[in-house]
């Protein structure tokens, strides 16, 4: 009932190097955990906003 009533967010976020993403997703899947890539960390190229929500 709580999951239908309240927005519980995404749960846990794990930040890993790009070259390890596939391995981490495979391992989590093997543990019956659902996981998605939801973004990336990138160096800013200019003086603009540091965070952009789309």
Describe this structure in words.
- With 54 residues, this protein is mainly alpha-helical.
- The protein has one domain (1-43).
- The chain has helices spanning 2-5, 21-30.
- The two termini are 30 Å apart.
Question: How does the SSE layout of this entry go?
Answer:
Layout: H1 2-5, H2 21-30
* Total beta strands: 0
Helix content: 25-40%
User: Uncertain spans, ≥5 residues at pLDDT below 50?
Assistant: none
Give the number of helices: 2
Distance between the termini: 30 Å
Key words describing this protein structure:
single chain; 54 residues; mainly alpha; 2 helices; 26% helix
Structure in a nutshell:
The chain has 2 helices and no strands.
């Amino acid at each position: 009932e709580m999951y239908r009533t309240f927005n519980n967010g995404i749960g846990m976020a794990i930040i890993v190097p790009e070259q390890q993403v596939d391995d981490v997703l495979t391992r989590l899947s093997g543990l019956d955990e659902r996981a998605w890539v939801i973004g990336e960390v990138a160096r800013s190229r200019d003086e603009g906003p540091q965070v952009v929500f789309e």
